[in-house]
Write a structure and sequence with these properties.
The chain is mainly β. The chain is 9% helix and 39% strand. It has a single domain, classed as Sandwich (Jelly Rolls), CATH 2.60.120. It is globular.
Amino acid sequence: MSRNIILALALPTALLSAAFMFAQEPAAKGTGKGKAPAGRRAPLFFKEEWKQIPGGGEHDITPGHVSNPNLELTVYGDKVEATGAEGDDNNPVHAWTGLCEKPCGLTLKDKKNYVDLTGLSRIKWVTKMSGFHQIRPIVKLADGTWLVGDRADGSVTDWLESDFSLADVKWMKMDGKRLVTMGSILPNPDLSKVDEVGFVDLMPASGHGPGGWADVGKIEVYGKPVAR
């Protein structure tokens, strides 16, 4: 029998042996369903519970109302007020948009770290609304890009604590000066390096008394710190 014929007969046997050996290899570690692990929930990055300034009452919100010494406050759009009383569950110290004649909001940023808001990152805040007002999350990325989320919160009945995953939020670009939305929903924005996190009320307010405004109390952001 020629050498070529012997090789031709041996080839199928070699292929079958290789296939059998491959089938015996242990499966790669994972979930067992071909899906990537969900990962760990993000740690608390910052928590802000506003404090009242000496004399109390209602004032333009300032860095003096920020209780967390690691955070910097920036107000955007029209002026935002601070009001309420410490220890009063019915009227805690909070940011109030009632005097905004155009869209307004604010952000907080950690002085030493950006925050990675990918994965199982989330925001928790306490809010109360009047009228049809709602607040939405906003972020300023490290490169200066502004984004606003489609998540809208606000109860007209009572103070409500809301907790939501940022992976569920759809994002759109925002003009950081006028606080208006721009363009279309972004398919996959990169939230791995966020400079500022906060909220925006996209509707002009009605002033004091029932009408239309937003109250925002405690804010918690869960994400991974990234050194500046």
